[in-house]
Design brief:
Blueprint: H1 3-15, H2 22-29, H3 33-46, E1 49-50, E2 55-56, H4 58-72, E3 80-85, E4 103-106, E5 112-116, H5 124-128, H6 132-146, H7 149-163
Parallel strand pairs: 4-5
Antiparallel strand pairs: 1-2, 3-4, 3-5
Helix pairs in contact: 1-3, 1-6, 2-3, 4-6, 4-7, 6-7
Length: about 160
């Protein structure tokens, strides 16, 4: 598994279209078509994509997020930068969790300032600008990667509703 595999799987859930094309995914995620193809192959091999690459194994993907995401792709907040909000600073958690600290993916066109969180793939801030569902999924995953127990637990509840 590579971090971009999580982004590709999240996008497949967000678009919820078994007739997707790798070219369309490539354009929506600002990744090369070969990266998309390799990601689909790795996810298929791991059992995270089923039905000849057309469907995410949602239960297994959620279990991986719950038990392995923070271990395999850990993250620690960095310097204060301009960027796109993530984790508990982004919807849907921003309405429930009040915090003085903001977390952002570094992005020159971002509208917020906060502690930097490296996105799972460099083009994530650009891709989520076009897809609020993807933004929510990846922000919830970041809450699991960097949050405290309360943020992690709430993020897991919301992800389970969206994924399973």
């Amino acid at each position: 598994m590579k971090p971009q595999d999580i982004v590709v799987l999240a996008k497949l859930i967000a678009i919820n279209d078994p007739d997707y094309t790798q070219m369309a995914l490539s354009e929506m995620l600002y990744m090369s078509q070969s990266e998309i193809s390799s990601s689909i192959s790795r996810s298929s091999y791991a059992g995270l994509i089923i039905n000849k690459g057309k469907e995410v194994n949602r239960k297994l993907f959620f279990d991986f997020i719950k038990c392995g995401l923070a271990v395999v792709f850990p993250q620690h907040p960095g310097a204060i930068v301009r960027g796109t909000v993530t984790a508990h600073s982004a919807p849907p958690l921003d309405m429930e969790i009040v915090s003085e600290e903001k977390y952002v993916w570094p992005y020159a066109r971002g509208s917020s300032r906060g502690q930097s969180i490296d996105p799972l793939y460099p083009t994530v801030p650009k891709a989520v600008a076009l897809d609020s569902s993807l933004h929510e999924l990846l922000a919830l995953m970041d809450a699991i990667r960097v949050g405290r127990a309360r943020e992690k637990n709430r993020a897991l509840e919301l992800l389970e509703q969206r994924i399973c």
